[in-house]
Write a structure and sequence with these properties.
By secondary structure, the chain is mostly helical. Helix content is about 50%, strand content about 5%. The chain has a three-stranded antiparallel sheet with strand order 1-2-3, covered by helices on one side. A three-stranded antiparallel sheet has the order 4-5-6, with no helix packed on it. α2 runs antiparallel to α4, α8 crosses α12 and α12 crosses α14.
């Protein structure tokens, strides 16, 4: 079996195979599970994202932003984050390091943080501030800084937003009309829509997750263990789609999708179907929750499928459906 790039294997005296990610400038990381399995690929992707060891790291001046970020990337706190969260924070902090790497981390004033925030869009500012706070808290714990300059920095109140666009039934039908059953695109829609899971979990699903008519998985982001009965529509699509790989969804070369690769591919399938730019994989997760609410499911029942950690998000769907139902009942009583 051909191994992924930068993976080395060796067999111990008892015949057990061990696999490691080994790449110049990166830490050596042991990879669990079988090559190409979802568990293996999740660890492989995390290892390939870093933390990369900067050339000349030993010459980095202690106490600088550069040194602080390098230390944070190797910390248990950072390495314990979900791969997607690591990628997001790494992107933000690498840009911050490129601009301010030589500055002393202990002397960053609140005014500097506030100035940086003013140059960003509301959503980006919120994510940036959250990421920087985690970095500073790490620095305080490691005695690299004595105070937290982000502590009293607040964000201006952003306009209310519903976040990602929730697919409408017309948009779902339009996608299905363009991508017939048997195609990878239709399978992707069915997995997203009938399991209610995030794209990161759907792209690693395979037949090993299906047993006795139930999809079982452990969410990458929350660690929640879920058992989701397979909907009849999803069963029909699965039965009609050939699969010889460990994951249902694969690239044209037969490899599992990376996070960025999957998002780009979904966007291409939506474009091919003539759908607006607002349609995304996460929007199908929201459509799944909407459908469950419209079917009369409670917030707890919806969360048992979606895996939301709190009911605050899913209650939005039930409230919207309840409002529409109450309005119809009210108007019906007037004879309108």
């Amino acid at each position: 079996m051909k191994l992924p790039k930068y993976v080395q294997a060796w067999v111990d005296r008892e015949g057990r195979a061990h696999h490691y990610f080994r790449r110049a400038g990166y830490p050596r990381v042991r990879l669990p599970g079988l090559p190409w399995s979802p568990r293996f690929m999740a660890a492989y992707e995390a290892a390939s994202q870093g933390p990369q060891l900067a050339v000349g790291a030993k010459r980095v001046k202690p106490g600088t932003v550069h040194a602080a970020i390098a230390g944070y990337f190797t910390s248990l706190e950072f390495r314990s984050l979900a791969p997607g969260t690591q990628r997001g924070r790494r992107f933000i902090l690498e840009n911050f390091r490129a601009q301010h790497g030589d500055k002393p981390i202990a002397l960053l004033p609140p005014e500097f943080i506030a100035h940086e925030l003013r140059s960003k869009k509301p959503f980006a500012a919120k994510t940036w501030l959250k990421t920087l706070r985690h970095l500073i808290r790490f620095c305080v714990a490691e005695k690299m800084a004595s105070t937290d300059p982000t502590r009293d920095v607040t964000l201006p109140r952003a306009p209310a937003s519903d976040g990602f666009h929730t697919w409408t039934e017309d948009e779902i039908s339009q996608f299905e009309a363009h991508h017939p059953i048997g195609t990878q695109a239709r399978l992707a829609l069915a997995l997203l829509l009938y399991t209610g899971q995030r794209a990161g979990d759907v792209r690693t699903m395979g037949r090993q997750h299906v047993r006795d008519g139930v999809v079982t998985l452990k969410q990458q982001k929350t660690g929640a263990a879920l058992a989701i009965p397979i909907h009849s529509e999803l069963r029909a699509v699965l039965d009609a789609t050939l699969s010889e790989h460990l994951t249902f969804l694969v690239t044209p070369r037969g490899k599992p999708y990376t996070a960025n690769g999957f998002s780009k591919w979904i966007r291409e399938q939506c474009d091919a179907a003539g759908l607006p730019k607002a349609c995304s994989a996460h929007g199908l997760r929201k459509a799944a929750c909407r459908r469950l609410a419209e079917a009369g499911c409670s917030a707890n029942e919806i969360a048992s499928i979606s895996g939301h950690r709190t009911l605050k998000e899913v209650e939005r769907y039930t409230r919207a459906v309840d409002q529409a139902r109450l309005a119809r009942n009210a108007m019906a009583r007037t004879g309108s």
